[in-house]
Amino acid sequence: MSSNLHPMLNVAIKAARAAGAIINRAALDVESVRIAQKQINDFVTEVDHASEQAIIETLLTAYPDHGILAEESGRKHGAKDAPFVWIIDPLDGTTNFIHGFPVYCVSIALAVKGRVEQAVVYDPARNDLFTATRGRGAYLNERRIRVSKRTELKDCLVSTGFPFRPGDDLKSYLAMLGDVMQRTAALRRPGAAALDLAYVAAGFADGFFESGLAIWDMAAGSLLVAEAGGLVGNFTGEADFLEHRECLAGNPRIYGQLVAILAKYSKFAAAGDKAALHAATAAVKGSGGADGPDAPH
């Protein structure tokens, strides 16, 4: 840990590395990991619980009067009404992890009076540590990072996440996917939103969009993007988005182009945009998309 870093960020890094050590040990024999299913296609493992516990213990040992908001245990730990709240996803990309697909991470953010001030996203498989303190820039392994400089969407690599839970609107998503796919150089679905946002911050991807996300998926990554010179919000471009369950990020030029495409798919879209969405999803259905003979069921 560096003496130049904010002390709270140093503690978050210590917590993330402790969780990463647990994840890496389990990854050596992933087939023996006990798995439970929270709902269809939404998994939790003993590794999620153990890494979350290690993070919480590290944070509360240093800051016993802070609050905790964690994916697996909610607000069960920490002070209940503290202005300082740690937002934790102990293993983002659990489905990847249990299949041995090495794209997953630990995500830790500190919100002060509702605003994210510190962020750590740690990829234990690659030992990549992304960090940010508000106003001090974003870093990958202590090297300053910036969002990409591409200005044309047709030249861009954009990442996303697919709907996978019961009740997700697959028709709408297929229309959205088609809208973006035909305007970009390539689309990727790595499977860990916090890492997707970190990659936008580092310039590895030019943009990212996904719906159905929780605050712990987005909090740390959103600060990384902002401190790397990018923009992040919901599909309509609103910056106050962490409770909206949708996220869009990119370098400033690409972000604007993606908002123009994706705004009509937002649940916060205006009535005219909603009408355009219904027309788009009808077109997908008419072309044998979501309801076609090879559609997933």
From TrEMBL:
<keyword id="KW-0460">Magnesium</keyword>
<dbReference type="InterPro" id="IPR000760">
    <property type="entry name" value="Inositol_monophosphatase-like"/>
</dbReference>
<protein>
    <recommendedName>
        <fullName>Inositol-1-monophosphatase</fullName>
        <ecNumber>3.1.3.25</ecNumber>
    </recommendedName>
</protein>
<dbReference type="GO" id="GO:0046854">
    <property type="term" value="P:phosphatidylinositol phosphate biosynthetic process"/>
</dbReference>
<feature type="binding site">
    <location>
        <position position="91"/>
    </location>
    <ligand>
        <name>Mg(2+)</name>
    </ligand>
</feature>
<feature type="binding site">
    <location>
        <position position="71"/>
    </location>
    <ligand>
        <name>Mg(2+)</name>
    </ligand>
</feature>
<dbReference type="InterPro" id="IPR020550">
    <property type="entry name" value="Inositol_monophosphatase_CS"/>
</dbReference>
<keyword id="KW-0479">Metal-binding</keyword>
<dbReference type="GO" id="GO:0007165">
    <property type="term" value="P:signal transduction"/>
</dbReference>
<feature type="binding site">
    <location>
        <position position="89"/>
    </location>
    <ligand>
        <name>Mg(2+)</name>
    </ligand>
</feature>
<dbReference type="Pfam" id="PF00459">
    <property type="entry name" value="Inositol_P"/>
</dbReference>
<feature type="binding site">
    <location>
        <position position="217"/>
    </location>
    <ligand>
        <name>Mg(2+)</name>
    </ligand>
</feature>
<dbReference type="GO" id="GO:0046872">
    <property type="term" value="F:metal ion binding"/>
</dbReference>
<dbReference type="InterPro" id="IPR033942">
    <property type="entry name" value="IMPase"/>
</dbReference>
<feature type="binding site">
    <location>
        <position position="92"/>
    </location>
    <ligand>
        <name>Mg(2+)</name>
    </ligand>
</feature>
<keyword id="KW-0378">Hydrolase</keyword>
<dbReference type="GO" id="GO:0008934">
    <property type="term" value="F:inositol monophosphate 1-phosphatase activity"/>
</dbReference>
<comment type="similarity">
    <text>Belongs to the inositol monophosphatase superfamily.</text>
</comment>
<dbReference type="InterPro" id="IPR022337">
    <property type="entry name" value="Inositol_monophosphatase_SuhB"/>
</dbReference>
<dbReference type="GO" id="GO:0006020">
    <property type="term" value="P:inositol metabolic process"/>
</dbReference>
<dbReference type="InterPro" id="IPR020583">
    <property type="entry name" value="Inositol_monoP_metal-BS"/>
</dbReference>
